[in-house]
Design goal:
With 97 residues, the chain is mainly alpha-helical. It is built from 4 helices and 2 strands; from the N terminus they run ααααββ. It is elongated and about 35 Å long. The two termini are 18 Å apart.
């Protein structure tokens, strides 16, 4: 899986999350793509900060499972451990049947 394919997979997974649970999608959008704090996100959505944290954790777990199901024998490392530091590092090799 190259970087474009990985980016596309994330976009597709986020679209699927939006169809399933708009609030969880909104939390991820505000927290990670618009860089709002927990408190700013809570005010924007009109929910308690504790709910923002809960929705964020659940959305991240769902997203991880969704992406794991979409890839074939890929090793996706967290951006924090990636040498580039900006995007997750992705290696992929196809499974042979």
């Amino acid at each position: 899986m190259d970087e474009d394919t990985g980016t596309r997979a994330v976009d597709e997974a986020l679209e699927a999350l939006a169809r399933l649970d708009l609030r969880k999608h909104a939390v991820l959008e505000l927290r990670f793509f618009r860089a709002l704090s927990v408190e700013e996100t809570a005010r924007t959505l009109g929910i308690p900060a504790a709910h923002v944290l809960l929705e964020q954790r659940l959305a991240q777990a769902w997203l991880r499972r969704e992406l794991a199901g979409r890839r074939e024998a890929c090793d996706v490392r967290d951006a924090a451990t990636s040498r580039s530091g900006s995007t997750p590092s992705v290696r992929c090799s196809r499974r042979r049947s």
